[in-house]
Amino acid sequence: MVAFTHLAIALSTVAGSLAAPAADPYVDAPDFELNGDRLMRRQDYNQDYKTSGNVNFSPTNNGYSVSFSGAGDFVVGKGWRTGTTRNITFDGSTTASAGTVLVSVYGWTTNPLIEYYVQEYTSNGAGSAQGQKLGTVTCDGSVYDIWKHQQVNQPSIQGTATFWQYISNRQSKRPGSGTVTTKCHFDAWNALGLNLGSHNYQTLSTEGWGNAGGNSKYTISGS
Q1: Is 33 considered catalytic here?
Q2: Is position 207 annotated as part of the catalytic site?
């Protein structure tokens, strides 16, 4: 993988940048809002971090699109200000023409401080899966490799800190549509001693580095 240490710093820096979401008049609203006589689920967190290159991110009410070229590091996506054991359904596609590109359910917890990924698609190698492989889990009919990796004195949502990354990396990559039952992954991690804490934000994200080029477009819902 290309410059994982640099990537990890950039991804962790995302947390500091993204703890305050992009401007959104509904950002402090709950996950549900009343629309006429129907109670509708609404995404309420825009994830938007970029360094070098061209990254054109367009969030929508129920998803996002992004096109990118020559990208050094970026993470963009859509989700919730507070994570939980959601079933996250996404519908769309990703294409990658250069660099490394990932599509993941991505989030953080505190007490303990954890950065986690459920990687649905990686264009080049194992994406952010590095460190120690602990086993596998079958979720939603697919097999995922489980990894943990320690970040030492790196930026996080709580400033510079030492913390673990928990990663489920799907063996059969899917850049298109599907559902991630997060409880399946969280339970598998817990059985291996990988405990999560209190949830911070939780998103479906597209991520790239190493002069990444390509595009993504998704609609997202949770239950």
Answers
A1: no
A2: yes
